[in-house]
Design goal:
Largest sheet: none
Number of helices: 8
Strand content: under 5%
Distance between the termini: 46 Å
CATH class of one domain: Mainly Alpha
CATH architecture of one domain: Up-down Bundle
Low-confidence stretches: 8-13
Oligomer: single chain
Order of helices and strands: HHHHHHHH
Number of strands: 0
Length: 172
């Protein structure tokens, strides 16, 4: 009897590509009610209060994922690195850690593109992202110009690396 290998975490965490027209459609009445609700200033204010009230809790969750990210890096576990960066990018903005989320997003984008291309990652580039995520998440005021500058420079570096991969994949 053969058993099926479990799907690696980074494969489970990847975004699902839905073709145009493939999204589930809401009935028109429900869609209009939802649109009205998300534009209602009272609902927006209530949501902002809930997020603000839970910001410290969310920051703690981000820091927990940063610790797990560091553990994954020490183990050189690319799948777990992607998984934790993915979690961080989803939580960081609501925790007031904008630069942390942007840096984690850059890392996810890079690792996902490499995975799709069947290419190994540049370990120095990954290490730079890991260091920047850790520092940004622990900084008292990480949403400063410095945090944004680091996120911007890492985004440019990722774009450059991905362009190099795309150029090398083109027939000649």
């Amino acid at each position: 009897m053969t058993t099926k290998k479990p799907t690696p975490p980074h494969k489970r965490s990847r975004a699902v590509r839905i073709p145009p027209g493939g999204y589930p459609a809401l009935p028109r009445k429900v869609a209009l009610q939802l649109l009205e609700a998300v534009q209602d200033p009272e609902i927006i204010a209530a949501a902002a209060r809930v997020i603000a009230d839970r910001a410290e809790e969310m920051r703690g969750a981000v820091l927990g994922h940063v610790e797990r990210l560091a553990e994954a890096a020490r183990a050189s576990d690319q799948a777990r690195i992607f998984e934790q960066a993915h979690e961080i990018r989803g939580l960081a903005g609501n925790a007031g850690l904008t630069a942390t989320g942007r840096i984690a997003n850059n890392l996810c984008k890079y690792l996902d593109a490499l995975d799709q291309a069947g290419r190994p990652s540049d370990q120095e580039l990954v290490a730079l992202h890991l260091e920047a995520i850790g520092r940004a998440a622990h900084a008292e005021d990480e949403a400063t110009r410095l945090g944004d500058a680091v996120a911007n420079e890492l985004a440019h570096l990722v774009e450059k690396k991905l362009a190099e991969i795309n150029d090398s994949a083109r027939p000649g």
